[in-house]
Design brief:
EC 6.3.2.13, 17 helices, UDP-N-acetylmuramoylalanyl-D-glutamate-2,6-diaminopimelate ligase activity, alpha/beta, six-stranded mixed β-sheet, eleven-stranded mixed β-sheet, UDP-N-acetylmuramoyl-L-alanyl-D-glutamate--2,6-diaminopimelate ligase, ATP-binding, globular
Length: about 500
Amino acid sequence: MQLAELLKEWPCTVKGGSIRVEVSGIEDYAQGVKEGDLFIVRKGRKSDGLKYVDMAIKNGAVGIVIEDEKQLDSLTLTVPVIWVPNVLKFMSYGAAKLNQFPADAMQVIAITGTNGKTTVSHFIGQLLHALHKNVIVIGTNGIYINGVEVNLDYEHLTTLQPKHLHKILKIAVSRGVEYVVLEASSMGLAKHRLDDCSIDIGVFLNLAEDHIEDHGSYDKYKAAKQLLATLSEQLVLNGDDSFCRTVGLQAKKKKAYFGLGNRVDYQLQLLAEGGTLSTCCLQSNKGQKVFSIPFVGEHHLQNAIAAITTVSELGFPIEDICDAVNRLTLPDGRLESIDNTLGIDIYIDYAHTEAALRAVLQTLNKTVKRNLIVVFSCGGDRDKHKRIKMGAVASKYADMIYLTTDNPRSEDPELINAQIAAGFSPKQQYEMILDRGEAIETAIRLAAKGDTILIAGKGHETTQTIGSVEINFSDFESVKLALKKVLKDHVE
């Protein structure tokens, strides 16, 4: 596509070069620029893209996009310099246009919330696939088409950058995909990554304090989440959550409320609970149905009713949706059980917020036979205010806690753990073991038959960031290694 065609509907000023040059891509990372790309100059947390303009041109950039008008006069380059009011908005638009606006060819569901985005997105994907529809799910755990992970080259973010997202959506269209299910993170929304995705349904799950330092304040975090309402044609909202209710009251759009309480369009009532099964009754203006959900715990019921409501609002019969619910499975790293021969219940979960940790511990507390043991920490350079709260939640349920590391980044992990421990009850038993693998092994080695171990915070993740170094690390692999060692010692 010629630069002139790309820019003709976008407010801009062009200096130098030719607007007839062919543009093939959008890139904001100079090292990743390929021949034919436009290079987007933006300021990151640690660096300014302006420093890398020469590298981008050397790598084949055919134009430089800026949002500081002063740079129009200061930059003298061999390629066009394009000023736009907002480079992030242009990056979204440009990537979508270069890929022929692929989202327009599918129905798009975007999900936001502090907790539950990944689980709900996978539940919706599974239900749609069970109803014989082709669906792509894009989010924290990766990219899945009809439940099968697709290995593509992209930066792993909860909400993908437009330069990757629209290429992937174009691939999805070519493979006959009819529905797109996306996780809409607060940062993704604030950075305009979904501005050109033609979102049919925006799903609001909940809001709790998280990412406050990223956004600057809790109000800015809320405002970022609310952007999804302006981008969506229709809303599905958690009627049990005050923030979601407020979003619904402010939005003059078609909307449907779900929840476990009253004053909702889709109400899920728990009739019986046992083992790993919940028997529920769905009440809605589209029908009533008694069915089973293959999980226990209030947060799983909330996630299930969110998915059911969304698929119903897409036009599928309640009867057919509920018949498929008993085949739902949790995504990787979400209360995932690890089989072993020690008689210990071992679970790995991604819970890294106060609300998520509470929900998981409440669920495990219903089935724990003996002691409940928790291995966790909090991330460095992130949301320090939540550490004492997570400590208080863990201490309420845990008999023993092992404080360890969870991406401490530039912070001292001992100080992070001290802030967590400040929330413990005076009688709480705990130990600090900074090597996460060693902490997991110690928890397993010292656990007795009938104990339950929760390893929280990282879930599906396969790396750990310590200082400025990212190392390979998996809770799953650590558990397998620890079990192997402990079983070997038992034999000897």
